[in-house]
Specification:
The chain is mainly β. Helices cover about 5% and strands about 40% of the residues. It has three helices and 19 strands.
Length: about 350
């Protein structure tokens, strides 16, 4: 998953989450919906707003007026908008576009339709829209009858290396058997659904492991306020969004797990937030890392950003709701990933 580079501690400037009625935030009753493929894809891939002739509207986002018609963004095409992460307040003036852009586009991996999310670093030695193998990468989500799974990822910690998340269904010569569960076929509102996924990292899609690890996975769908900002606007605000929250624990139960990765997938935007939490009892450096990260103030509080167990601490986070609009005649492009 995405990792953060070191940066200076940030000045103050948190925005407090607005209080909305509980019924709007968390649903009025416990219910579960079987997501159709098109609806599920709408959470994994960002949307392109269209005019009456079906042409992309530059700079218009799905939650804004004027987006009555839309379709999934496709890999390789110019993008009408991009989303980047929030910079620390101390860096906001000099680097308003943040540190990492992330596009979520419809593409294909191994002959299978996939949601391709890129990690594109900018600033310093890196530049947005230029693939830098020392830092850039992404992750791929695929849809099946059982919901959505992550199949492969690459980040700056392992330059040039793809990591495949494979399940016990892996067979040499068979279709891709992705293993990192995001959400199942039924996505509830008002409560968590959960399952224990079986997976292991492998160096290739056909390098089927002989054994697998367990990962408690929980997910739910709610309407919630999400903070947003634009690169060329000084004042952030909040927008109610339809979001699937997904939790991936590093073990079959929370007591067995040493860490948690938590994701927010907003309808029409793709993944908009990622967090990593760890148990200080298992790693003495967690407290130091968590204290440093808190000082950066890079991730504002959002619903369900809760401590997963007593004593656990958040050690990393990115929120990709810092938007860059394409201007008339401008072609915003994502990095070419995955390679090959």
């Amino acid at each position: 998953m995405a990792r953060s580079g070191d940066m200076a501690a940030a000045a103050s400037g948190l925005i407090r989450t607005a209080l909305l009625p509980a019924a709007l935030l968390f649903g009025t009753a416990a219910q579960a919906e079987v997501l159709e493929r098109r609806t599920a894809l709408d959470f994994l891939v960002q949307s392109v707003c269209l005019d009456e002739a079906g042409r992309p509207l530059p700079g218009v986002l799905p939650f804004e007026p004027g987006c009555a018609r839309r379709r999934p963004a496709r890999q390789g095409e110019p993008l009408p908008w991009r989303k980047t992460d929030w910079p620390a307040p101390i860096h906001a003036a000099a680097q308003p576009e943040g540190y990492m852009a992330s596009d979520a586009m419809l593409g294909e991996v191994m002959g299978q339709e996939a949601a391709i999310q890129t990690f594109d670093h900018g600033g310093g030695n890196y530049a947005f829209s230029r693939f830098d193998p020392r830092a850039d990468g992404g992750q791929v989500a695929v849809l099946g009858q059982g919901g959505a799974d992550l199949a492969v990822t690459q980040d700056g910690g392992r330059p040039g290396q793809l990591q495949w998340f494979l399940s016990p269904g892996c067979r040499s010569g068979a279709p891709l058997a992705a293993g990192w569960l995001i959400f199942g076929a039924e996505v509830p509102s008002g409560h968590w659904a959960e399952s224990v996924a079986r997976l292991r990292i492998a160096p290739a899609a056909n390098a089927c492991p002989e054994a697998f690890d367990s990962a408690l996975t929980r997910w739910r769908r709610e309407t919630m306020p999400i903070p947003i900002r634009f690169h060329d606007e000084a004042t952030p605000r909040e927008v109610p969004m339809d979001v699937i929250v997904s939790e991936h624990f590093g073990g079959a139960t929370i007591p067995e797990a040493g860490h948690l990765e938590r994701f927010w997938y907003a309808r029409g935007l793709g993944m908009v937030r990622w967090e990593r939490w760890e148990d200080p009892a298992r790693n003495p450096r967690v407290a130091e890392r968590a204290a440093w990260f808190t000082e950066t103030q890079r991730c504002l509080q959002v619903p369900f950003s809760d401590r997963p167990a007593p004593g656990w601490a958040m050690v990393d986070c990115r929120t990709w709701t810092n938007f860059r609009r394409a201007r008339a005649g401008e072609a915003l492009r994502s990095i070419p990933w995955p390679p090959g």
